[in-house]
Each structure stands twice: as structure tokens, then as C-alpha cells.
Design goal:
alpha/beta; TIM Barrel; two-stranded antiparallel sheet; 16 helices; 43% helix
Length: 386
């Protein structure tokens, strides 16, 4: 086993252990992937101010996200097909997050169902909702999240239609996946993954199959999902969903100040500055670049979170400095999951926490809640006017 010191180490190991079609699904963006790359690279241009001769004892990264105590300002992002990175992936990631003391967000398009995660990882996780044309299904999905005692609903607004991801098309990733000769040969080179999948019954979309009339296998699921993402989604639907849910609501996919103001008007408890990991509108600005404008527009009216490109604790600290109360990791935890299962997710969280803690100390702070943009070198970070 190689020595794991950072998220990139986990990425390389996951690439070796996860079949190409599923690894590429997680580690890719739409079209030219320019936004996907910018999400990560724009963090690197932001420079930190090192401070010295500061008492660094008694440090804490504890804070809150939507009023919920968290061990650090990080939640696990909702990612589809997590259970295809590693057998029972959503259950394993939820357990690791609960043990560490941060929220886990389950995707509508997960392999393990809401009920599975609740049974194995306990209550208190968050659930992410896609709006489908079948409103009866959406109502039942919300009710299932309530029954599982999820503590927040994350409503994704930027996937009314699917962005084109070239790697998925080339790999034949669909529902069900196309078992081409190339894919079968590739899977044969990943015995650890294959034996894990053979040992579980969770190999289809657990929140959908068996919960929609006429959808009882991966074949019928494909036809259903192809026509279900609702291009008519609007802010009126957000109000309807908030009323139906009745609990904490987070809206995901905000990049524009006007949309941020709409999010405030909708009554949401928080918004996530996000471009869907660069998987939707290629050519959109990076999340960290958009963050200061959103904070300037509505920061005093709604809690602001962000996702996109976070690969280290330093990235978390920079987002916090620019006004994000919380951040989300998607690919970073998926690399850990694909590399080492539950232990890999725990390792990813430990890496990010250690980097966050040490970097915070080097910038002269011992409490994450006192961090602001004064820790950043002027001229190296985006502002509301840039």
C-alpha cells in the first residue's frame, strides 16, 4: 500500500482500482472541461498571508452549517452513482462522515436508497433532490427523506437538462451501462472492485427502482430517466418543495447575483455557489471566482456555501475567508472511496482537516470562525467587482 499524504494520492489509487467508465464519470466535466479545470486551478492563484509569533494552541475547526454543528466547514456533496465507485459506496461514505462529524448528502441518483443509508448510517444525513416531471414521485421522495429523519433537503437547480460529457458517451455510460468488449476487459483488470460488486445486491438506482410504477429494473429505468428531468423547473417549484418539506432547505447551483436574490426570496435557509462541478455549463466561471459576488449581493440575508474544485484543507480555508460558511467535497471523497472504500473516505476527511487546521494556524488564527479575507494576500483573490 502506498503512503497516502494528499487527495492526489487517493485519486491516482482510485484510477487504478475503479473501472474506467465509472472513474471517468466522477472525474470529468462537460464539453472542453474548461470550467471543471478552472474550479480547481483558480484556488491556486489565491495566496495566503503567513503570520508568525502567534500562540497556536487550542485550535478549533468546529463551526455550524445551517445551524448544525460540524467538525469542520465541510459536507460531503451529493454525487450520483457513488455506489459504483465502490460497492455500497453511499453507506460507507455516510458512515465515515457521521464518524468524523460532518454532513453526508445523499443524491437522488444514488445506488443505495434513502432507507439503506438510514438503516446503516443512522439519521441526520442530508438528502439531495432533483425535480422530475413526475410530481407524485417527488412528493413520495420528500416523504421518504422525512421518514429517514434527514435533517436538510438540498435542492439542485442546475440540472433541468443534462450537459454533454464526452467521456461518458465514449465509455458507453448509461442506465444500464453498455457492457462493450472494451468495458468488460477493463472491468476484468479491477478484481477488487468486481468482487465487491458481486458481494452486494445494490447495483441499481435504489431511490427509483421499485418506487416508480413500471420501473423495476435498469432497463426500464433508462427510458424513465431520459424523459424525467424537468426543463420547466422554476422558482414557484422551489416554494412548493419548501412547503412540502417543512425543514431546512438548501438550494444548489447559484452562480448569478439575481438568482441569489431569488434564493433569498424563496425562503431557503442556505444557497450553494456551484456550477455542478463543471459538468453542466462549460465556460461558466469557477465557483471560487463567483463566491465573492454572491456574498456581496446576499451575504447578510442567507447562509452561503460553495462547492467545486476543493482538493485540500487550504481550499476550504480560502473559501471560508471569502465568505462561505460551509463547503462541499465531491471528487475528493470519491477518490478516497474508489481507492480504499470507507477507510479511504475517512482518510480524505483526515487529510483535508489536517491541512485546514495547520494552514489556519500559519495564517495566525486558532478558530475557524474568526477567519476572514485578511488571511489572503491582497490582489491575489477575486472580489465582488472582478
Amino acid at each position: 500500500m502506498p503512503v497516502i499524504t494528499n487527495i492526489e494520492d487517493l485519486r491516482r489509487l482510485a484510477q487504478k482500482r475503479v473501472p474506467r467508465m465509472f472513474y471517468d464519470y466522477a472525474d470529468s466535466g462537460s464539453w472542453t472541461e474548461s470550467t471543471y479545470r478552472a474550479n480547481e486551478s483558480d484556488f491556486q492563484s489565491i495566496k495566503l498571508r503567513q503570520r508568525v509569533a502567534v500562540n497556536m494552541e487550542g485550535r478549533t475547526t468546529r463551526t455550524t452549517m445551517i445551524g448544525q454543528e460540524v467538525a469542520m466547514p465541510v459536507a460531503i456533496a451529493p454525487t450520483g452513482l457513488t455506489g459504483m465507485q465502490h460497492a455500497d459506496g453511499e453507506i460507507l461514505a455516510a458512515r465515515a462522515a457521521k464518524r468524523f462529524g460532518i454532513p453526508f448528502t445523499l443524491s437522488t441518483m444514488s445506488i443505495c436508497s434513502i432507507e439503506d443509508v438510514a438503516t446503516h448510517a443512522g439519521e441526520g444525513f442530508w438528502f439531495q433532490l432533483y425535480v422530475m416531471r413526475d410530481r407524485d414521485f417527488i412528493e413520495r421522495l420528500i416523504d421518504r427523506a422525512k421518514a429517514a429523519r434527514c435533517s436538510a433537503l438540498v435542492l439542485t437547480l442546475d440540472l433541468q437538462i443534462l450537459g454533454q460529457r464526452h467521456k461518458d458517451l465514449k465509455n458507453g455510460l448509461s442506465a444500464p451501462p453498455k457492457l462493450t468488449l472494451a468495458n468488460m476487459i477493463n472491468i476484468a483488470t479491477k478484481p477488487r472492485w468486481a468482487f465487491g460488486m458481486l458481494g452486494t445486491s445494490r447495483r441499481q438506482f435504489g431511490n427509483i427502482v421499485g418506487h416508480v410504477k413500471g420501473v423495476d429494473n435498469m432497463g426500464s429505468l433508462s427510458a424513465w430517466t431520459a424523459q424525467q428531468f424537468d426543463p420547466r423547473l422554476n422558482w414557484g417549484d422551489v416554494a412548493w418543495i419548501k412547503n412540502r418539506w417543512g425543514g431546512k432547505l438548501i438550494v444548489k447551483g447559484i452562480q448569478d447575483e439575481e438568482d441569489a436574490r431569488r434564493a433569498v426570496d424563496s425562503g431557503a435557509d442556505a444557497l450553494i455557489v456551484s456550477n455542478h462541478g463543471g459538468r453542466q455549463l462549460d465556460g461558466a466561471e469557477s465557483s471560487i471566482h463567483a463566491l465573492p459576488r454572491i456574498v456581496s449581493a446576499v451575504g447578510g440575508q442567507i447562509e452561503i456555501h460553495m462547492d467545486g474544485g476543493i482538493r485540500s484543507g487550504q481550499d476550504v480555508l480560502k473559501a471560508k475567508a471569502l465568505g462561505a460558511q460551509g463547503t462541499y467535497i465531491g471528487r475528493a471523497f470519491l477518490y478516497g472511496l474508489g481507492a480504499m472504500g470507507e477507510a479511504g473516505v475517512s482518510k480524505a476527511l483526515e487529510i483535508i482537516h489536517k491541512e485546514l487546521d495547520i494552514t489556519m494556524a500559519f495564517t495566525g488564527h486558532t478558530d475557524i470562525n474568526t477567519v476572514d479575507r485578511s488571511i489572503l494576500l491582497p490582489g491575489t483573490f477575486p472580489t465582488a467587482s472582478t
